Amino acid sequence: MAGTDEDAVAAEDDALYVLTAILLTPAQFPSVLGDDYPEACAALDLPPVADGYGLVLGQDGDGARWTVVVDDVSLVAVAIASWDCGMEYDLSPDERSVVTALPGWPLAVAVAAPNVAAPHDPAAELVDRKPLSPPDTDTWGPAQRRLGADDIALRWAVWREQIDDAAFAPADNGAKAEKKAEPADGPGVNRLSSGVRRVLAEARAYVDAPPPLGRVRSSFASGDARILRADGPGWSMIARTDDIAFVLLDEEPGEVVPVGRGAELPGLLEALEKLAVRPL
C-alpha cells in the first residue's frame, strides 16, 4: 500500500508525504503490536477508543518519520482498499481529524518519499517522546509468533493443503495433537500436546469471561465459514470455523501445531465466533 507523490497531510506545522496507512480498530489492528486491541493501542500510548484510529505513516520535508493518528477511520479504510486494488487515492485527512502526530513508525515501511532525505527519526529537540520503532522480529517471541499467525490467516489454503488429516489426532478434551514425524509417546509430542491443552483451556475460558477487545477476531472465508483468530498470553490460534485449527506457542520457536476437529473443537469455535469482533 502506498500513496501518491502528492499525498500529504499536516503534521507538526509541516507537510507529511504519505507512504502508507493502517487501521487500528478492535477488529483490525497490527497484531505484531499486541495480543489485543488495548495492548496495541498501549504500544502507541493511545486510549483504546471504541471506534479506533487510522494511522498514516509518512515523512516530513526533512525526511523524518512520522505517524499521524486520525479519528476518521472510514477515510483511511477507503484509502487502503483503493491502494489494495491498485488505484491511486489522495489520502488527505482534515486537520480536525488529527488526534496526534507521533515520531517514528510502529511498523517497517519498505518505500520512501522522493526528493527528501532517507527516512530517519526526527531530531531529539523536536519531539517529547521516544520515536516509535517496529517490534523486534529477528528472534522468535510474541511479535514473531503473531506474525506467523497473521500469515496462516492470510494464506489459510496454502497452510491447510500441507496437512494430512491422518498426521494428527483430534483434540477432544484437550487431547494431544500428534505429528507422525515423532512417536506418539515422544518428548516432543508430549510437550506440544501440553501446550495445546493449555491453549484450548484458555480459549474455552474466554467464552465464560470475555477477554480484552480484539483477543478474538473473525474475518471472511469462502462459503459460510469464517477465519477465526484468538490470541492469549504466549499463544495464537487460527481456525476455520468449518475445519481444523493451528496453534503457535512462544515456547516452541517456529512450530505450527495442527489441531483436529474431534468432538469439541467445532463447539469451541462456534462459541468463540459469537463473541468475536468483525471488521465493519
Walk me through what this model shows:
With 280 residues, this protein is an alpha+beta fold. It has two domains: 8-126, no CATH class; 142-275, no CATH class. Helix content is 25%, strand content 21%. The chain has helices at residues 37-42, 73-84, 142-154, 156-160, 187-208, 265-275; strands at 8-11, 14-24, 53-59, 65-70, 98-103, 216-220, 226-232, 235-240, 245-249, 257-259. Strands 1-2-3-4-5 form a five-stranded antiparallel β-sheet. It has a five-stranded antiparallel β-sheet with strand order 6-7-8-9-10, with helices on both faces.
Summarize the structure.
It is built from six helices and ten strands, in the order E-E-H-E-E-H-E-H-H-H-E-E-E-E-E-H.
Number of β-strand runs: 10
Largest beta-sheet details: 5 strands, antiparallel
Total separate domains = 2
Q: In DSSP terms, counting alpha (H) and pi (I) runs of 4 or more, how many helices?
A: 6
Share of helical residues: 10-25%
- How far apart the termini lie comes to 20 Å
Strand content: 15-25%
